[in-house]
């Protein structure tokens, strides 16, 4: 083989090779969730803040997607993640908790259109996933998004916050 022929031996499907690269912003974390989706932030774009996870953060996002988000997706179809990983700067800009699991790639916020969707999603997550924390986040007296987290750092708490208050 001549030196110039070495390029011909590269994998035919370079897209899959790139998608497994943990540093690639278009990589898949699971069947239906991408790294780009889980790190996208309107606030980061507006304020020109960096929002790049470490390899450890990416591994935790992958676990969150596989263990919690994928089962929900399989049951209800497409779900809209409004916030996933956040850098310290992005978390501060959005008014996130200082010890938010978003900072480590262990949490995602999912859009819900109202009480019915919030209740369906919440009930499914509580019954079928090993989540750490589920928070029904209200806005103007009705659920607007669900905060869901998953961790491997300790046993998941199965903590549910605001469920009853938002479902009345």
Describe the structure.
With about 170 residues, the chain is an alpha+beta fold. The protein contains seven helices and five strands; from the N terminus they run H-H-H-H-E-H-E-H-E-E-E-H. Helix 4 crosses helix 6. Residues about 1-25 have low confidence and may be disordered.
Mean of residue pLDDT? Answer: 84
Poorly predicted runs of 5 or more residues: 1-25
| Assembly state (oligomeric) | single chain
**Major sheet strand order:** 1-2-4-3-5
- Which bin fits the share of residues in helices? 25-40%
The geometry reads as globular
Could you give a short description of this structure?
This protein has helices at 14-19, 35-39, 42-47, 55-76, 88-93, 115-128, 163-166, and strands spanning 81-83, 107-111, 133-139, 142-149, 159-161.
Could you name the key traits of this structure?
15% strand, 5-stranded mixed beta sheet, alpha+beta, 7 helices, single chain, globular, 168 residues
Topology:
Layout: H1 14-19, H2 35-39, H3 42-47, H4 55-76, E1 81-83, H5 88-93, E2 107-111, H6 115-128, E3 133-139, E4 142-149, E5 159-161, H7 163-166
Parallel strand pairs: 3-5
Antiparallel strand pairs: 1-2, 2-4, 3-4
């Amino acid at each position: 083989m001549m030196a110039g022929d070495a390029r011909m031996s590269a994998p035919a499907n370079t897209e899959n090779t790139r998608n497994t690269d943990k540093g690639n912003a278009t990589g898949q974390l699971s069947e239906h969730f991408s790294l780009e989706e889980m790190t996208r932030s309107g606030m980061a774009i507006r304020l020109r803040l960096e929002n790049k996870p470490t390899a450890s953060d990416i591994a935790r996002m992958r676990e969150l997607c596989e263990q919690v988000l994928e089962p929900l997706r399989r049951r209800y179809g497409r779900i809209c993640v409004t916030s996933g990983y956040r850098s310290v700067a992005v978390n501060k800009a959005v008014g996130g908790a200082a010890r938010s699991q978003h900072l480590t790639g262990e949490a995602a916020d999912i859009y819900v259109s109202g009480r019915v969707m919030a209740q369906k999603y919440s009930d499914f997550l509580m019954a079928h996933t090993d989540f750490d924390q589920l928070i029904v986040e209200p806005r103007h007296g009705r659920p607007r998004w669900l905060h869901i987290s998953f961790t491997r750092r300790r046993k998941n708490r199965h903590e549910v916050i605001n469920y009853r208050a938002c479902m009345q």
